[in-house]
Amino acid sequence: MAGAGRGRLCPVCLRPARDGGCVEHGPWAPHQLATIDDRRAAGRGSWLPFEPLMHACPRCLGEVAEGRHGWECVESAHGRDPHGPYRVDELLGIAGQRNGAACRERFARRARVRQRSGPQLPALPAIDAARLWRLIAAATVLAATVAFLSR
Ligand SMILES: [Zn+2]
Ligand SMILES: [Zn+2]
């Protein structure tokens, strides 16, 4: 349990969990919380289409297997930071997995956009949206002008 207690993010929405809880997705045990690394890994993946499992590792939505100490994440078992072990009620059910996959897909999409446009600050998506709207507005005005002039 090398990385236990390091996680600070809600495993469903990957937003910072205050005092171990997420307003939307309920309280979590410390070892259920996702880490920044988990979120980064989620950003590298592709989450759609998503096939939920009966139970999944809350940190990576991966397969779990029953071990000596409880349910352990198969994918991370031999890594530096193994996920779990979890009690069966600490695993993510189907609804939580679907929700988690949708949120992870959002991170992944943002990461892909970021990759295409080079290194950016984490705060940029909000600014991007505003800039996008300005661009759309400008393009609309331009299109209207062109339409007016070509008449
Ligand atoms: Zn949450
Ligand atoms: Zn896992």
Draw up the topology in text:
Blueprint: E1 21-22, E2 26-27, H1 36-44, E3 64-66, E4 71-73, H2 94-116, H3 124-149
Antiparallel strand pairs: 1-2, 3-4
Helix pairs in contact: 1-2
The structure holds zinc ion (ZN) (2 copies).
What does it look like?
- By secondary structure, this protein is mainly alpha-helical.
- It has 3 helices and 4 strands.
- A two-stranded antiparallel sheet has the order 1-2. Strands 3-4 form a two-stranded antiparallel sheet.
- Helix 1 packs across helix 2 (94-116).
- The relative contact order is 0.13.
- The structure holds zinc ion (ZN) (2 copies).
- One zinc ion is lined by residues 10, 12-13, 15, 22, 24-25.
> In order across it, which strands form the biggest sheet?
1-2
User: What pattern of helices and strands is seen along the backbone?
Assistant: EEHEEHH
Question: How large, in whole angstroms, is the Cα Rg?
Answer: 20 Å
Contiguous uncertain segments of 5+ residues: 1-5
Tally of DSSP helical segments: 3
Q: Helical content, roughly? A: 25-40%
The average pLDDT value, as a whole number, equals 89
Strand content: 5-15%
Largest sheet: 2 strands, antiparallel
Throw out a few tags for this protein.
single chain, 151 residues, mainly alpha, two-stranded antiparallel sheet, binds zinc ion
Structure summarized in a few sentences:
This protein is mainly α and 151 residues long. Helices cover 38% and strands 7% of the residues.
